[in-house]
Structure formats: structure tokens, C-alpha cells
Amino acid sequence: MNRSVPWALFAGSAFVLAPTPLWTHYRQLLGLTDVEVTTIFALYGGGVLAGLLVGPASCRLLGARRVVRFGLLICLLAAADFVVSADPVGLLVARTASGLGLGLLSAAAAHVLADGPAGARALTAATHGGVATGALGSGLVVEPFPWPLVTPYVLAAAGMAVADVAVGRVPAPARHECSPAPPVAKGDTRRSAPLVLVSGLLGAFATNWVFGTVTVNASHLVLVQGLPADGIVAGALVAVMQLCGGLGQLAVGRRTAAGPLPVLCFAAGVGVVVISVFCSWPAPLFGGVAMVGLGGGILLRRAFAAGAFGNGWTRRAPALAFYSGMSLPVVGGGWLADRTGLAASIALSGLGAVAVAVASRLVHTASTVRARPSPLSTHCYSAAHDDGSPTAALATFVVRPPNASPPHDGIQPMDTQKVKADILELEDRRYQAMVDNDTKALQELLSDELVYTHSNATRDTKHSYLDKVTAGFFVYHSVEHPVETLVVRDGLAVLTGQMRARVTNNGVERQLDNACLAVWAKEGEDWKFVAYQPTPNQG
């Protein structure tokens, strides 16, 4: 399923930006004011937040595949609502539903993919590539094709339907995000984690304040400047901003991200956009939104990195701040536009967003702290672990001071992030071998000292377990194994999570629903599976 998930997220992201060049049409067709348009637009952010909040629990309960498909289904229903809606209430429902669907898609994709830099880059590329494609593609079909308020949604729905079929056809167990926790090397730059988080939240809020303002007003901006083919130009304008945002998250080095350049680039881009609007000078408009996208993308990367140092609400805080930025401030901009005009509204909104971004930089500068020798430091963010992946866990609780000796004298610290990725891959191989009844692969993966405990409290050794698999005593029809935690120490890896399976046990078909603990140990140059302990979930 892993390869199909980015395409599902790409298709959903493309759909939610399909209305970008259509807001002017809705204004004219339904007689909407600026504040009504921005309210309909901003409710999408509330839908995304709802999806992101319920998505992780839904993945654990139902499995990531079902959540991906359910998110696509909600987006398909929203597309149908956009097509048939002829009043503001219908648009409001469709827009909110599209946000909910994308939020579920994003949460499920992170559940499956964000266990390392490669997965996080796939998430970022799918999201920014999708929204850029949706905005530009919609602009391309609005002008030359009939039914401009129908065609973009039909094409987006077709893409989501294909993605749904792909997700449904590829059998693979779901995998949960696991955070790398590498040791802090001597000489790392350390910062106060709470202040870094506040800085990141301010940056995320400012970024989507401008992203949302430009997106909802793109066709209006192009129209008032007298540019031809306003739908295509509006779509291209948003596409450039989003692509540059993705570039800022993926291609900029850690030192650059930690410096003042993101805020300077963001502020300069806002200034160029404001000047272009006030002077009715369209030439620099694309350059301005490109600078906004690049600077905002780097600020987003820093926000997600800061949020990754903790768990629960701390991890969700950057997304909450990001989508809050496109809600109330954007609606406020619509209210201003109704009273002062579009140019003044853009200028005031841009000034407010720049002020928040500057505050983000000031808080980030104030976050530098001196590392104090102590046996346990739990509130320092190490910038050295930021590998550039915005949705991976790029920061961590620091559990050893920088001058602490490595455990077991003479043994060098492992590349923990790589080890975790290797262990997750081995777990996938083990479960796939169980489903495939591949005893040769199991023979290679299992330790000779294996202790395999079953949910009925019986135990098997490696040899007795393989004998039962070979004889058909255990037949695994399907398995899901979301991982919840993964702890790595020198030569040892301990996973906790869930194991849900349909199995035939001694001729009797059963449905397993267990919390489980699995242990891998380094034996020579290879990792071997040494212990397993399931506990049936209650109810």
C-alpha cells in the first residue's frame, strides 16, 4: 500500500485546490461578498483540523488502508456536492467536507509513511505537488472547456477514484510513524524546546495566513490587474507558491532554515505582492508569491521539526497553528476587503503576517541555551538532528548530556535512525513471511534462541514454531501490525504496538486482536527476532 498512499494524498490535495480559479465565478454567480467567500474558503481549514485530530486514532482502530479510502470517499462526495451546489450553504458543506477528507488522508499517509526521511519527503512532495497541480489544472480547464464549475471537479474525482482503486488493490500491512531518537553528539547546538515550539507555531500561523489570503484571492488579484485568461493565471500563481513551499521544506539546508533567511524571504515576498497590488503592476506578482512560498516552506519545516520533540498535542500543534492561520485571519481579510477594498486588505493582512513571522524569529533567537551537565536533560531541542524532512520526527528528547560517554565503553553509538528504519523493514518482512507461509524467510529472520509466546500463554521455540508453520498448524490469512513505539539501545530493539490478524489455528479460524511486544537483537552483523509477547485487547 505504501506506494499507492502518496498518490492518494496527491489526488486529494489536487482536489481541494480545484476551486482556486473559481472563486470569482462563485462571487458573480451567487452574489457573494468577500467575507462570505473567505468564510467558505476558511472552513476547509476547520475540516482539515478535524481530520488530523481523529485520523491517528482511526488508523489504530480501523487500519490505515480503510482511513485512506474513507478520506477519498469523503472527498468524492464533496466533489459531487460542489457540482450540484447552487447556493452558499452547499458550497460551505462541500468545502468543509473536502477539508475533513484531506485531513484523514494526511493522517493516514503519515501513519504509513512518516517513519523516516524518505517517507516524509514523499508526504511533502505529494501534498505540495498535489495542490499545485490542482490549482494549475483547474485554471487550464476553466477557460477553454464548457461548464467551468463542473469540469475541474469531475477530473479531480476521476483521479481520486483511480487512487482509491490502487489503494484497495495493493495488499500490505500498515505501519505507524516511529520517531528516531539518536544520541546527541558533542558540540550540538541546543535550544529551549518550548521556545522553539512557540517560534515554530508562530511561523506556521504566519505562513498559512498569507498562503490562504493569496489562494482565495488569486483569481480576484489577476482580474483587477487586467490579465487575460484569469483562471489559468490564477491557478499558475498558486501553483508557483505551493511548489516553492515544497522546495523550501525539502531542499534547504538545516543551517539556512535556522537562520534569518526564511523570515527575510517571506517578508520580502509579501512586500513585493503588496506593491504589485497597489500599483496594478502584474510583472512582479509571480516573483513575490515565489518568495512567500520559499520562505513559508522553510518556516513550516522548522515548525514541524519543533513539534516532533514531544508526543500528543505537541506533535499536532504545528498543524493546528498552520490551519488556524488560514481561518480567522483570512476571514478577517475578507471583512476588510468589503470595507476598504482588496488592495488595503492585502496590505494589512500581509503586514500582520510579517509581524507574526518576525516575532517567530525573535523567539527562535531567544531560545538558545547553554547545555548543562546533568544525567537527564528532557527539554532541549538539538538542531543537529534536523534532516530536512518536515513530517519526520526531526527533534527528540535529549537523554544524555553532550559530554556523556557512550554506553558500554569502546562501543560507538549506532546510527539510531537507520537502525529503526531497518527494524521496521524487518518487521514487515517477518509478517509478510508469516502470511506467505515462507519458512525459508522465517528461518533467516528468527533467532535460534527465540521465545515466541502466544495469546493463550503457550510458548514456542524457533524450531517448534517453524514446524507448526510448515505443518499448517498456523495459517495467517491477513495481518496488520501498526507500531506504536520503537526503542533502540546498543544491540537491542524493542517494539510495542498492535497485531490484528485473521488466522487458522489448528484448523479453527480465529480473529486476533492483541497488543504486543516484539524484541530484536543484534547477532553478529545481523538483527534477529528473539522474543514476542501478545496480550489480548479487552472487548
TrEMBL record:
InterPro entries cross-referenced by the UniProt entry: DUF4440, MFS, MFS_trans_sf, NTF2-like_dom_sf
Keywords assigned by UniProt, alphabetized: Membrane, Transmembrane, Transmembrane helix
Transmembrane domains' residue ranges: 7-26, 38-55, 67-86, 92-113, 193-211, 231-252, 259-278, 284-305, 317-336, 342-363
Stored SUPFAM superfamilies: MFS general substrate transporter, NTF2-like
Top-level taxon of origin: Bacteria
One of the Pfam families matching this protein, by short name: MFS_1
Domain spans labelled DUF4440: 423-528
Protein name (Swiss-Prot/TrEMBL): MFS transporter
Organism per entry: Pseudonocardia lutea
